[in-house]
Amino acid sequence: MQGKLAELKARGLGVAAISYDSESVLAAFARQHGIEYPLLSDPDSAVIRSYRLYNTLVDEALGPGGSDPQLQEEVRRHVAGGGARPFMKGIAIPGTLVLDAEGRVRGRYFEESYVERPTVSQVLLDLGGGRDKTEAIRIEATYLDGAVFLSDPAVTIGNRFAIVAELKPRPGVHVYAPGATGYKAVALEIRSTPGVRLTPARYPEAETYFFAPLKETVKVYQKPFALVQEVIVPNTKEIQEALRNGEGLALEGTLEFQACDDRECFRPVSIPLSWKVRLKRLVTERPAAQKQPG
């Protein structure tokens, strides 16, 4: 969030983080990492409870039934890989809430694993904000323009980011949507570094197009549209090794489609895609509260 703070402010968006940590711990963390947005202290977890985000697994794991194998597995997934510890009592289920000017929730992001979070760029993409076409692969043809790009050029363990293909058919041209038979439907196919998870690509709702000469009805895209492939960087052995070795994430794949106008169909196109995404170190240190002078 700090890296995107100027962009967020330019868009009229404010940022604040809230945790159960004391003011002194948050102040030490802010100084250590140059955090300039508010870090709000909720030491009794009152606000966390009011949002029903109190992580009860910590209390259960530290209680009499804490040795239950199923509970321990849930703790490793939803609290910490090394298990629950006393200082964790009061933590929240991690997530991001997006509020409008009236305080109403307009977006919420919560993951199954405690370490997985969407990047700020990913949240902005979902909210329909401007798109920073980082290392974009440009597509220019007589019948279509577009670009395929990453939401983030650098990520860390737990990040959820996106590969986006924005395509703009020329006037009078349509691109075949998934489900069209007899034609090459548009498809964003990505292969990745072992250990990385890919969610199913998201395709927008298609239009129904009637081609009079052949009296056929098919699903197409005629207006500008975007395909989104989300990529998750889990805490796996492969990712840990890549981070230790200073390696990035290799992402490769293809963008395939076929376009037609009212008279003819153009040859199917397959565009190779490849990126090397930088891996950043995950901050895990918990600063000690500094004693006040006097």
Structural summary, described in words:
The chain has 294 residues and is of the alpha+beta class. Helices cover 18% and strands 33% of the residues. The protein has 7 helices and 18 strands. Strands 5, 6, 7, 9, 12 and 15 form a 6-stranded mixed sheet that branches. Strands 8-18-16-11 form a 4-stranded mixed sheet. Strands 13-14-10-17 form a 4-stranded antiparallel sheet, with no helix packed on it.
Set out the fold topology.
Layout lengths: L4 H6 L6 E3 L3 H11 L5 E3 L4 H5 L6 H5 L7 H10 L17 E4 L5 E5 L7 E2 L1 H7 L7 E7 L3 E7 L3 E2 L3 E11 L4 E3 L10 E6 L4 E2 L8 E5 L4 E6 L3 E8 L4 H8 L4 E9 L1 E2 L8 E11 L15
Parallel strand pairs: 1-2, 5-9, 8-18
Antiparallel strand pairs: 3-4, 6-7, 7-9, 9-15, 10-14, 10-17, 11-16, 12-15, 13-14, 16-18
List keywords for this structure.
294 residues, alpha+beta, six-stranded mixed beta sheet
Short description:
This protein has 7 helices and 18 strands.
Globular, elongated, flat, extended or rod-shaped: what is the shape? elongated
Distance between the amino and carboxyl termini? 35 Å
Number of distinct beta strands: 18
Low-confidence stretches: none
Helical coverage, percent range: 10-25%
Gyration radius (Cα, Å) is: 23 Å
| SSE succession | HEHEHHHEEEHEEEEEEEEEEHEEE
Largest sheet: 6 strands, mixed
**Number of helices, where a helix is a run of at least 4 consecutive DSSP H or I residues:** 7
Query: What number is the mean pLDDT?
Result: 88
Give the percentage of residues in beta strands: 25-35%
Secondary structural class? alpha+beta
